[in-house]
Amino acid sequence: MCKMIKLKKISENIYEIPKTGNMKVPGRVYASEKILELIKKDRTLEQARNVAMLPGILKASIALPDAHQGYGFPIGGVAAFDINEGVISPGGVGYDIDCSVRLLRTNLKKQDIINIQEKVVNALFRKIPSGVGRGSKFQISRKELNEVLKKGARYMVEKGYGFKEDYLHLEEEGCISGANPEKVSEKAIKRGIGQLGTLGAGNHFLEVGFVEEIYDEKTAEAFGLEKNQITILIHCGSRGLGHQIASDYIKAMEDEYGFKNLPDRELINAPIKSRLGKDYYAAMACAANFAFANKQLITHWVREEMNYLFPEKKPKIEVVYEVCHNIAKFEKFKINGQVKEVCVHRKGATRSFGPGRKEIPPAYRDVGQPVLIPGSMGTASYVLVGTKKAEELTFGSTVHGAGRVLSRAAASKKLRGSEVKSSLHEKGIEVKAGSWQGLSQEAPQAYKDIDEVVRVVDELGISKKVARLKPLAVIKG
Amino acid sequence: MKFKFLEHTADIKFQAFGSNKEEVFENSALAMFNAMSHDIIKSRIKKKISVKGKDNESLLYNFLEELLILFDSEGFFLSKLKVKIKENKEKKLEAEVYGDSAENYNLRIDIKAVTYNEMFIKKDNKTNKWVAQVVLDV
């Protein structure tokens, strides 16, 4: 379908979709030749081109090496808009608002876990609700939920589920300001209220792994990471609450503005300064805060369970960082020599700020923001560090994962869940999933090669490799 | 054939069929729940739902979304249903839906949202049959 889109090679790993027709800016694709071939297989490039037609878009519509076809905007896409003339789009954020990743470091070592992986995976699977339709054991009143939506991880810490140091080490310190629960519909509340403290299904997971390799000693030290240390990676989002907020505002924006003039119905948007634009942001911030709180509660349960499993080790579990994946943010960048506040949409993309930015926790400010890139189940996950180069090239953004290549249906047909489990077992990875089907759909073969994706972003310099994490025990929804 | 699933890189795409508009709506709902579980679902619970839409697509979107909300908030899993559509200036759908508590079944996938992605509902003039296409964000 993308045959009609001509690409111009700018330099190694950088391609341009030249500005034509109604495009307001060119498209920029960051990919190796190998990855580009995969990207060309679906509608990614066409979608990146369509995004370039939206009002107020700045510099370029960007597709990162993990890009694949999404809803309106490609996943693995970045677009920044002028605050006065630009728009905000629920499709540019995605349905799973703030689907995000938190990394925990521990004082445990690889050898503490290596022979009891199955015990660990079973214990965590019992402790943390995951899978389709699994509600939370954590009951919360409507009034408390409003506090969660306003305050995010901070509220959970206030309630005793964690420490101040936890939220100080999250993107936005675990709370996006401007959240207003009044802008969240009853339907969204109904879907979300029973889901706080659940992983969900799909690509969401909790992974116990270890630091297999360190590429940058100084930065790893700043992040508190060392070789063979046990780490825990949590990947989940705002659950049904966020999905419903996205849906509600897509409908409201369609009613208000119509979609006849859009290159694609799914690019529905509202001016940033409009009532609906502001309302969507206030509701989206609520979903993000729900996601921060969700992972805070899961972190608390992980601590409880690890204390129970390793009483003699007195487990010390600390937050390294949490990055948002599907989000719109107001951030400042230098554009044509002038510092300007813009609205950055990161859909399946991670913020990647270089050293010195005030948004980075003081402990990491000298080295840059931690960037967490989960791989697919059987491969590796990476810790990278943000760079100034990212601020120049990609509005301070980098990839969020490997990106799918195989549809869920094709993966299910091709691979059996039980085979996926046993092949992972042979590689030394224990996995427990809510369903075999879920497992086969998220098999490593369904994704691009994470090593290649990370190699490209490191080469481009939009984030630099710090450490590689290898999974030992994985819980899937 | 009530419905069939099609290839999509990241999400779930299906086409549902029917000899009239009501039936294509019914089969779309069954397809969505079939994506979540292949178990045979008992009809223990009966509910009535009603949604509105400004065109066929938004009516289908709102209908499927309503079922998704019932699933997320009450654990309601659909087994069978009867749909009635009234068409005036605005379209209105009323449905009697039967099903069971989701916890009694093996569920395979979590649906995040119904989308307008590649969505259509149309009558094939050759066959006189209705067909709807839906992509679910999972």
What topology does this entry show?
The complex is a heterodimer of chains A (477) and B (138).
Chain A (H helix, E strand, L loop, with lengths): L7 E4 L2 E4 L9 E4 L2 H7 L4 H8 L9 E8 L6 E8 L4 E2 L1 H4 L6 E10 H4 L3 H11 L14 H10 L1 H6 L5 H5 L17 H7 L12 E10 L2 H6 L6 E8 L2 H19 L12 E2 L3 H35 L7 E8 L2 E9 L2 E10 L1 E3 L18 E4 L7 E5 L2 H6 L3 E3 L8 H7 L2 H10 L3 E4 L2 H6 L8 H11 L3 E13 L1
Parallel strand pairs in A: 3-4, 18-19
Antiparallel strand pairs in A: 1-2, 2-3, 4-5, 5-13, 6-10, 7-9, 7-11, 8-9, 8-19, 12-13, 14-17, 15-16, 16-19
Helix pairs in contact in A: 5-12, 6-12, 9-11, 11-12
Chain B lengths: L2 E4 L5 E7 L2 H16 L8 E9 L2 H19 L1 E12 L3 E11 L11 E12 L4 E9 L1
Antiparallel strand pairs in B: 1-2, 2-7, 3-5, 4-5, 6-7
Helix pairs in contact in B: 1-2
Low-confidence stretches of chain B: none
Distance between the termini of chain B: 24 Å
Give the tally of structural domains of chain A: 1
Q: Encode the helix/strand succession of chain B as letters.
A: EEHEHEEEE
Return the average pLDDT of chain B rounded to an integer. 93
Instruction: Supply Rg of chain B.
Output: 14 Å
Q: Determine the mean pLDDT of chain A.
A: 93
Biggest interface, CB < 8 A? A-B, 47 and 35 residues
Q: Judging from the principal axes of the Cα atoms, what is the shape of chain B? A: globular
User: From the coordinates shown, what is the CATH architecture of chain B?
Assistant: 3-Layer(bab) Sandwich
Mind telling me the CATH superfamily name of chain B? Archease domain
Largest sheet of chain B: 4 strands, antiparallel
Q: For this entry, what is the oligomeric state of its chains?
A: heterodimer
The chain-level structural class of chain B is alpha+beta
Instruction: Give, in spatial order, the strands making up the sheet with the most strands of chain B.
Output: 1-2-7-6
CATH class of chain A: Alpha Beta
Q: Please give the count of helices of chain A.
A: 17
